[in-house]
Amino acid sequence: MYFKMKARLEKIVPDVELRYKAELAAEIMELKREKNAVILGHNYMEPALYYSIPDFVGDSLDLSRKAAQTDKDIIVFCGVKFMAETAKILNPSNTVLLPSDKAGCSLAASITAEDVRALKRKFPGVPVVTYVNTYADVKAESNICCTSSNAKAVVESLHTDTVIFLPDEYLASNVARETGKQIIFPALTPAPLSLQGRGAGGEDPHPSPISGRGAGGEGVMVGWRGRCEVHEKFTVADIEAVRAQFPDVVILSHPECSPEVVAASDFSGGTNAMIKYVEQTKAPHYLVLTECAMGDNIAAANPDKDMLRLCSVRCPHMNQITLEDTLAALKQNRYVIEVPEEIRVRAARAVQRMIAIG
Length: 358
Known about the structure:
α7 (136-139) links the parallel β5 (128-131) and β6 (144-146). This protein has a 5-stranded parallel beta sheet, sandwiched between helices. A 4-stranded parallel beta sheet has the order 2-1-3-4, with helices on both faces. The protein has a 4-stranded parallel beta sheet with strand order 11-10-12-13, sandwiched between helices. 41% of the residues lie in helices and 14% in strands. The chain has helices at residues 2-9, 15-34, 47-50, 60-69, 81-90, 113-122, 136-139, 151-157, 169-179, 236-245, 259-264, 271-280, 292-301, 323-332, 341-357; strands at residues 37-42, 56-58, 74-78, 95-97, 128-131, 144-146, 162-166, 182-184, 220-222, 249-253, 267-268, 285-289, 307-308. By secondary structure, the chain is an alpha/beta fold. It folds into 3 domains: 2-105 and 318-332, Rossmann fold (3-Layer(aba) Sandwich), CATH 3.40.50.10800; 108-227, NadA-like (Rossmann fold); 231-308, NadA-like (Rossmann fold, 3-Layer(aba) Sandwich), CATH 3.40.50.
């Protein structure tokens, strides 16, 4: 294990740390075999974990597919809670473990199921697209989920002028631009007591019909003011400062960055799309504007390419997932993810439609 990790991470992780983490990884691998477990690792995992214990690595869509196909008894999800919930939604009979109970998400926390119900009352009949970075009860109120990599395709698959797209403000704005839709962010008033807790059947006494089309002639997107606490911190000033020092740099940004940052970048795409872009192109320098650990993982996989670092931001939630906690999760069977069956069944429809879009 040490030599396997060293071959990839020699220039990324100090040797003394590699030796310690290789011991943890070897113990995890043994427990994984004993307990018939599969380990899924998101692209944002720290390099020592990413390049050692996962059976599969990738973005949310990749890992959702792998979760749906597994024949293992236990799924250990090295990611954050909404990802582990998605695995449970697709595998109700499997045990799903999340190594840390502190691995939440600022974006998922920005919206509730009642918020979605309120929007559905305000815009009756309008389909709801929910980003996979949401909790199960929010997914259950949706028609279909999406990831950053297939959001445009999901919106276009609905063949409708108007769509509710939740909860990421910046991703919605970027997808609205790509699909030619005008984006609006409506204010919501509390639901009348007679309607609170009701689903799509409850009607708003003052619904907001949407007429007309956006500037591009393709309709309207109803957004929400949620943001990723990592991606919102990247600015156009950051890009300008890097370009001043490295004029020939190629800058890649995640679609959860602001529309201004995306417009100032050379390429924007989900985590897998950015990885493939670096692998398949040649440039003097690259700068990836996303979670810091992913930049390290790309650098480790592409030692012949010059990856600049603008790493002032690490996701505090992804950072909770460690080799130590993953080992403890397998030893102690913690932290078990549960999703109430009534919510799971409804959420599964939205997630499965997302997977079918690809």
